[in-house]
Structures are given as structure tokens and as C-alpha cells.
Amino acid sequence: MSRTAKPTLSELENAVMAVIWDSGQATADSVRTLLEPERTMKDSTVRTILRRLEVKGYVQHTTEGRTFIYSPIVVSRNVAGDAVRGIVERLCNGSVEDLLVGMVDCEVVSPEKLRELAERIANAKSEPKTKARQRRKGK
Fold first, then answer.
1. Is the domain of 98 the same as that of 130?
2. Is 95 left (phi over 0), alpha (psi -120 to 50) or beta?
3. pTM over 0.85
4. What does the pLDDT read at residue 7?
5. 3-state SS assignment for residue 71
């Protein structure tokens, strides 16, 4: 199940992506304006970051007149998954179990929440099989 991960995002790139994910699409000017309360950036800086995100494969753009409109290519959940995969590989010797135990030890997640998630995963895995059986039986 190995797949090539995209290059990681810097803190600033992640902030720009958050704006694009929240908006669905954005121009350089709208990104700059929406980030303004937290960060003051020049227009050229925002455009450079957007170009880098496009090269890295996170966004694509369309053109309306002379304005580039950027939209995400990847969903934030997948980017988070890739980041966690990197952590597991670098810091936990590839062991998801070590990561989860460490998260419980540091009180990032509770054992109860892990049990709940395990149940949801088990139910999600069995659900397609149940639906397929019902279709075969004509239900």
C-alpha cells in the first residue's frame, strides 16, 4: 500500500492551503486578505507560495481574465494522513502502534476514543460486505 507522498508543506504553505480548503477556491488577493488578521504578506509573497503549491501538486488554477483562481487538488485529510505517515516512518520506526501508544501516553487521545474509533473502523469495513450480500439476495 505504498504510495508516493507529496512534498511536505511549510507552516506558511499550510496556512495558505487552509484558506483554499475553507473557500473551495481563492485568488491570491483573497488569500492575502483572509490571512491578513494573522499575517501581513505582500502580494508577491502570496503569489510565490501559490506557485510553489501548484508545483508541489496541492493546487491547480484556472484563469478568468488576468486573474488566477486556485482550487485544491488534494483534500486536507489526505495531507494530514501523509504527514502522519511521515511521523510514523521517521519517529516510530514504521509502527502505528507505537504512535498510538505515545498519543495515549501524552494524553493526545484517550483509550476510550481509540476504542470508539476502532469500532467505527470495524463497522465501516463490514458495511460494504453486508450491502453486497443484501444486493445478491435481492433485498
1. no
2. beta
3. no
4. 81
5. strand
